[in-house]
Structures are given as structure tokens and as C-alpha cells.
Amino acid sequence: TEALLSDSTIHQMPVINRDLYDLVRLVPQMSTWFALAPSGAGTRVNSIRIDGVTDQVPSSNFAAGQLYGGKVIPLDAVKEYQVLFSPFDVRQGGFAGANINVVTRSGTNELRGGVFGYGTNERLGPNVPLVRNAQYDKQQFGASLGGPILRDRLFFFLSSELQRRSIPALGPSVSQSPSGQNSILVSETDVARFQQLLTGYGLDGGSAGAVTNENPSSSTFLRLDAPIARWNSRITLRGNYGHADSSIFARPTTLAPTNCPTSGCFSLSSLQHSRWVDKWSVAGQLVSNFARGAYNELQAGYSDLTSGFRPTVRQPLMLVTVPGTSGAPVVLQSGT
Asked: Residue 68 and residue 219: Cα distance in Å, rounded?
């Protein structure tokens, strides 16, 4: 079983996140509820490659470009997708779910480029209080350019994309009305006392108000193509870099995480932290057509993936139990 997403499909379909793998969900056998799960198989048995070089995290086999809201290459750099489920080609293997091959765009003898900018926020959403009161903002900018360096001999394609996104953290805050499902679980007096005690010890407890999570990301892609007519061959060199940084913070409402009693927790903003990832890869390919129909494809690639954790404050995690507004104990949290 095989599916092909062509160049025209990719660039005519609306993609709100401009995620490299959003359009793969157009393939009927691909699940849309979690990551990329084909035909009932788990995500760990997929093979995801960009021009033959893997784009997967060794620990989970997920696509590296999806870590923390990032994109490993810009969407403008994608020429087409090939999705295989039951391949008979001896060059394909190493998977039991889906084999996703991303083919990137190359330059031509004609100089072409483009610039784009997209933006959205809660004012462009449905006219319902739940959406209008949850402020969020996202901007995406990018540019691409391709053409000849030496006509008929050497071509280039360059693309870059930048994203800025701000979304409100889930959960209640002291600035909200005490009524409703997001009402705080503790009295504001206890929260203020907790902050005062932390300040007395020289610790930054942070805010008990609304918190915003940021998710900036960027990606850059460069490809060079050199046809060699004398050898009936083509040499391709490709390099790309992607970065993403995602703030993580949420105040629990109903479900109780670790260190929380059944009645819940209330966290100060110092509990917020961010997780970041950097990925870059390079690849080279030599495709040759010999006499009598013989064909050879030589490919080499290297990928580097680095991720990390960045706390908002460098101080211990402080947990203090106080009576909740319902009478049940609630844990106040501060620090990382």
C-alpha cells in the first residue's frame, strides 16, 4: 500500500500550524488522534526520513521536528511525501508501521522566491466567551528562494521560517472570578502569606495570576544540486537546522499530579520551565544511471539532536499544605 502527497496538494491545502507532518494525516490509514499512528500500529514502529536521513528521536521514535512545537525544515522546502505501508522495494525496510519519505525541493534554471506572513489570535476565533476570553497569539514568517548558481550545472534552494506563539496556561488564577470551574482551590490570603514567607527567605515565588506559555521556533534549509551530464549522474547536498523552545506551566483543576493530594494543588509562576531542542542534519546523495538500465544511488547523512531543560528560577521545589476553600487540603507549589 502506498500513498503520494504531491507538490500541488501540499501547497494548496490550508495548514494552520505549517507543520511538516500535518498533511501526512490526509492518508486514510494514518490516525489523527495522537502523533502518527498508522493502521492501528504504534508510533514506535514507523520510519520517518527526509531525503533518506532519519528525522526520529532515538528514545521514542517520534518525529524530531515535532518536539516542543518545532519544525525541522520549513514547509516551503517540501516537494512531496511518499507514505508506504506494505513495500516490496528491497530498498525499504526497518519498520512495521508506516514509512514516511519526505522529498525536499530543489532549485531550477529559473530564479523563484516567495515571502509569507501569517497571524492569528483569539479575536479571529468563534464568537463564544470560552474562546474570546482565552487570549493567544501566533505569528509565522518566512521566505524562500531558488535558482541557478551556474546555469544547467549548479542550482540552489534556500528556505527559512520563524514562529512566535503565546498561549495562556491552563488552570485558575487569583485574578479570576471565584465562581466557575476554574475557581482557585485556596484563599488568596494563604497564597499571599506563602509568597511573603518565600520572599523572607530570599526566594522568588512568582505570581499567582495568569501565566502565559511561549513557544518560539525557527528552521532553515539549504539544498544544492549539480547534474553531471557526462556521467549521467546528479549530486545533491542538503543541510538544515531547526530550533524550538516551549514554556511549560499549568495549574491542575481536577486531575491530581505528583505531589498533589486528591483535592489538588495551586502553583506559583516560578514552577514554569521551558524545554528546548536543537536539531541539524546534513546529507549527500549521488544518483547514477549506467548503460543497459543499471542504476545506483549512494547516500550518506549525519544528524545531531540536542535537547535541554531551562528552569525559570534556580531554587528548590517548595511544597506547603494549607486548607482549601472546600475544606480539603491543598498543596501550594513554588520553585523548580
From this structure: 13
Instruction: Write the DSSP symbol of residue 170.
Output: B
Give the Cβ contact number of residue 298 at 10 Å: 11
Q: What is the pLDDT of residue 227?
A: 95
Which of 74, 64, 83 lies closest to 26 in space, CA to CA? Answer: 83
CA angle, 225 then 228 then 229, to 5°: 130
Q: What is the pLDDT of residues 29-66, one digit of tens each?
A: 776 544 555 555 666 777 888 888 888 877 777 777 66
Rounded distance, CA 142 to CA 118, Å? 9
pLDDT of 250 reads 87
Burial classification of residue 150, based on how many CB atoms lie within 10 Å of its CB (0-12 exposed, 13-18 middle, 19 or more buried): exposed
The answer to whether 109 and 225 are in contact (CB under 8 A) is: no
Read off the DSSP letter of residue 171.
S
Note the pLDDT tens digit of each residue in 271-303: 999 999 999 999 999 999 988 888 898 999 998
Residues 146, 154: contact at Cβ < 8 Å? no
Q: Name residue 251's beta-bridge partners.
A: none
> What does DSSP assign to residue 272?
-
> Above 50 in pLDDT, residue 180?
no
Q: To which residue does cell 506563539 refer?
A: 165
* All residues at 6 or more sequence positions from 147 whose CB lies less than 8 Å from its CB, including other chains: 107, 108, 109, 110, 111, 112, 113, 155, 156
Read off the pTM: 0.84
